[in-house]
Protein: GRF-type domain-containing protein
Amino acid sequence: MSRRRSESSTASRSSLLRAHESSTTMGKETGFPLIECTRCGMARVLELRAWTDANNGRVFFKCPRNIPGAREKCGFFYWQKEYFDELVRMRKITVHEEALTDGCEDEAGSGHVPDHKVSNIDIEAKMDIMIRIVKMLFFVVFVGVAVGIMYALK
Structure:
């Protein structure tokens, strides 16, 4: 009996390790594979989100050695659409033509792939605003009812 438990726990641990390994090789935002840098070959690329005014919220991919001001800076940097095209060119992913729709062609021509996933930070910020508005509405209604009752009792 204990032998079966140890075998099952070993199997579950190895499946957890495989799940962890596979999750680290795929981007969390896009699900694209995070390949080894094609320029320097020394590290796996990173999937990040831009927070600059010009590119706020856009997903990009870069080598961890692509550091501004570094002496041996790697030049690997792609926006999401460019990285997708590079993955297709390298045959890391395949695109089936029948999966494309007419609406996607317009977006593909623009050079910007919209992000349909909303980050947890965005959701939390919107929830905070909504909670403040609801609290304010309750306060206004409460004050209105209190004033109404005081006026009626006069």
About this structure: The longest helix spans residues 120-153.
